[in-house]
Each structure stands twice: as structure tokens, then as C-alpha cells.
Amino acid sequence: MTSRRVTPAVVAALMAASASAMEDRFWDYYTPYPSNFVGSDEWWRGDAALGDWWGTRNWLDKDKGVEFSGTYTTDLAGNPSGGMKQGFTYTDNIAFGVKLDLEKLVGWRGASFTIAATDRNGDSLSQDFIGNQFTVQQIYGGQTVILTDLFLTQRFWNDKAEIKAGRFSAGDDFASSPLYWLYMNNGIDGNPQSLPVNASFSAYPWAGWAARLRVEPSPDWNAMFGLYQVSGRTFARNLNGLNMAFDPTDGLMFVGQAGWTPEFFKSRVKRVPTEREEAEELGEPDSDLHGMPGHYWFGGYYSTWSLYSQFGSDQAAANAYGFYWHGDQMVYQESPGSDQGLILWTAFVLSPQENIAKLPFQWNSGVVYQGLLPGRDNDSAVFGLAYGNFSSNYGRAGLAHDGDAASYEMALEWGYRIQFNRFFYVQPDVQYIIQPGGTGSIPDAFVLGAQIGLTF
Fold first, then answer.
1. Residue 322 located in a structural domain
2. Which terminus of the chain is more solvent-facing, meaning fewer CB atoms within 10 Å of its CB: N or C?
3. Helix H or strand E segment including 242
């Protein structure tokens, strides 16, 4: 499971996973020449591998409010040593969707409608060859076609608040950072893995009925509150995300999160003009204050579902709760207002109910440097760590490898994302899995791999 969706320092590195709106173009929709034809400079500098459809795509988006998006991601991985046995697998994810700007289409101010799906294929190296918890390929899970999004959003209060309602996952909005998306290990990517593992906290590509309110009273503060359907059908691959019904046994999950997004050591930086300002020669833009950005949040969840499986018992348990924290901070900036620099981040999850929570405690941490190599300003070098304690109830129930007691597992990851342009990247990746499955009976695994992403 993973999220698809950033701080300014990592925008360029995330184009293959993002469904952000298209930027303005210099060229005219009515130009008689295919200026974005495959192989041209305009195409290579564009947002998508399929180009702008000779202006049609930009016209549909900017003038008509119809935005198409599509991405392809593949994770290739093999373990030359360690694990249960040696092997190599690939897994991939094809995502496609449409966002309708209802203000442009029908005059419904501040509203939009999104529908999206994914098609996943391939096999898991962790499941078939290593035997570890923090799976080394983040796009494995739900290997079929799945409806991932079907929702309406409404902005109000001068765009400081937004309501989102329909079918989507909790992990799309809560406990997720664009920094996580730079990693290939699923213990980090998307959301900390203990959240969906412990309490049916829904995460991409699994969606359910939901509603979410986000409020940003000031640039430095935000808060979110969400309600999500909890069901034994949510993660059913054979239902393809089309399980639209409510069942009397379904429950509700309440999720809340408060965030602080400061910028430290601000200085005045000349604002980069937009393409429209440049094209219309509107003069020099004003300067803005920019510093080193940080993102900090605290959140918690509570579920009313009554069918949580208990380790070592045939009886189901009711209710689940937990807490999570996150902090990331740019600590070095190559120049005022620059995207290039060093970011440190860390995250914690606490799920105290050891009778139902497989990973009661998880700690993730990492380092991201954008523009480490001269002339490669949009590349990202990453290091990440995922550590998880297994529940004592889980260990005593003999559910780990060969029935052995399980204590902890740790995953270390190093990667370098080569961002060739806005729509294409290749990321060589190295992982080292310490105590796979938490028992100590499986040798530590050394994993070599790569993640490749393309935006259509």
C-alpha cells in the first residue's frame, strides 16, 4: 500500500506519483505545428510523456476544467543474500484518472469531482523470498484493477477550508508526507505501515466511504478531521474497490490531525515570474519572504469496528485506537529560497492494544538531499530507516516464521532518484533488512533494486 501524492524541495522528484494540475504553456493551442511532438525540446520539458496532445490537453484542463492524469511505476528488486531464499521479482502500478473542475464546467464555485483507478501486477520479493514485514516494494498489494477514488471536493471560507466526500482512503490525507513517497520500502512509503496493519486504517489503493474536512486558518497552521468506513471487505481484492454497500457489521474510524508548517530564518527572495507573467511581459514580480520550511503534525484515530481479530483467540475485539507524530525540517539551504538542500525527518506510531495491533510501536526516520551533485538540482539522495516492535501477543501466539517468538524488524534504505525531467525518473535502490519477520531465524537480507516512474 502506498500513497501517491510536497514540499517545494521535492516537487520535481515526485512528478511520476503526483496528479497535480498542468502548468501554463508558452505555445498556443492553435499553433499549426506539433511543438510538443515526441522528441522535441518542448515535449522533453513538458509535464507528461504523452505530451500536450498538440494543445488539446492544455485547452481541456485550463479552459474546460477536464484534467487527465496517468502514471506508471515499477519496483524491481532481488536479494543476492539473506532471506528465506534468493530471488528476483518485479511489481508495477498503472494509475489513471480524471479530475473535473465543476466551476469551469457548470459554474459550481470551488467544487471538483475526481475518479481514478489503478492496475497492479507482479510478485512480492518480501512475501516470496525474504519473509519480512516491511516489504521492500511499496507498490505491491492488491494486484488487480481497483477503483481507488470517487469523490467530490468543495472549497469555502476563501479557500481556507475544504470538504471531501465519497470513496477514498484515510492514508491519502492523514499521516502522509511527500517525503515518504521518495522511498521504495513500504514501511515508509505512503504511510507508516503499522497504521493499516494494526487497525484497518485504509491506505492506497484501498478505498471506502469517507468524508474529510481540512481547515487552514493561516499559512502556518492546519487541521483535519475525517470519518472512514471500516469493513472486512475493504481489502478484498476480488471486489475491485466496487464494494459500495454498507453492512450492519461495518464500523467507523474517526481520524484527527493538527499540523504546523513554519519557515525558519526567512529572507526576502525575488519571486519567480509565472509563465503567464513572462508571456504577457507584466514586469518584474514582487519579492517574497522565504525560509527553511518544516512540517510537524500530531494525529490520532479511534475505530468503532467490533470485528478485530485477536492474536491467540477465536474471539473478536471491539474498537481500536492509536496515535502518530511526524516532523520534517530543512536544516540546510544552498541559497535563500532554493529548493536544493538537506531535510531531516522522523515519524512515530503508537498503537497500545497488543491483543490486536501487530506492530504496537513503529519509528521511521530519514534524510533527503535535493541537488546533492553539481548540475543535478532536481535529483534526490535519500536514506531511510523503519523500525517496528512486534506485539508480545502476536509472538506468543506463534504466528511468526516457524512459530518462533518475534521481537523487532528494521529496514534500512539508500536511494538516489535521477530526475531526468518532469515526467521520468529512475531510482537505483539498496536495502538491508535486519531480523526479517522479527524472529532472528531468517538471515538478514541484502536487497538491490530500482524504482522507475513515468507520468503520461
1. yes
2. C
3. none
